[in-house]
Description:
Distance between the termini: 24 Å
Mean pLDDT: 85
Order of helices and strands: HHHEHEH
Strand order of the largest sheet: 1-2
Amino acid sequence: MTATYEPDLYDLSTPPSFRDDVEFYRRKAKESGGPVLELGAGTGRVALAIARDGIAIHALDADHAMFEGLQQKAGKVGFDWND
């Protein structure tokens, strides 16, 4: 049986200690110049921050609900995040 996550609950339950990692990944993405591949992207907490910096990023998540959450969040900030 595959676990299914609730994107809204996932975002709310992400510990603050994990949230500080976004700056690290943004810095690494800028240093690389892109493109970037994020595996296990969840709802896009890191991927969207990197995309906002103008760096090409491809994000994957095995859980369809989580990826839909990423697409919804991306749409709200003006990104078209399709397959």
